Amino acid sequence: MPYLYTITRRLALNALRDLATLQRAIDALWTDMEKVINETEESLLLSDLRQFTESALVQLPPQQQLIFRMSRYQGLSYDEIAEQLHLSRNTVKNHLIAALKTLRTHFNQSDVAYFILISVGIGCGVG
User: Fold this and answer.
1) pLDDT by residue (tens digit) across 82-100?
2) Are the CB atoms for 52 and 112 separated by under 8 Å?
3) Distance between CA atoms of 26 and 59, rounded to whole angstroms?
4) Would you say 89 and 79 are in contact if contact means Cβ atoms under 8 Å apart?
5) What is the model's pTM?
6) Are 116 and 123 within 8 A, CB to CB?
7) Who contacts 59 (Cβ-Cβ below 8 Å, separation ≥6)?
């Protein structure tokens, strides 16, 4: 009789251990899936934000577009842009200020940009 008890006890413990291992694997899978889903969602939202920004950028005058792209996308300073475009530093600065003002207005007037920014968690302590 003790032999049956020992076998039954070991089988029960093995089954519980297997169940716990399976549950850990399921939990890990859900965690990984949530991470992938969040990363994918954020990637899509950031892509939408880039598209929205690009649509606003193409409405700027060509010189403002160029200076904005050189400043923000290429990371060039006023002096570097001025040198490359053969403009004064103040002209570059004025074009960039005008471009930023126009873009800011475009973003402020759009509920789409606000929704994207809130969804991504920018500026609201979420994320």
Assistant:
1) 999 999 999 999 999 999 8
2) yes
3) 50
4) yes
5) 0.56
6) no
7) 102, 106
Phi, psi angle pair for 19, to nearest 5°:
-65, -45
Report whether 120 contacts 42 (CB < 8 A): yes
Nearest to residue 103, comparing CAs of 70, 67, 68? Answer: 68
What type of residue sits at position 28?
A
Given a contact cutoff of 8 angstroms between Cβ atoms, the answer to whether 82 and 92 are in contact is yes
Q: How many angstroms separate the CA atoms of 16 and 85, rounded?
A: 72
Burial of 25 (0-12, 13-18, 19+ CB in 10 A): exposed
Which value, in Å, is the radius of gyration of the alpha carbons in the chain? 28
Q: Identify the weakest region by mean pLDDT among 36-40, 102-106, 122-126.
A: 122-126
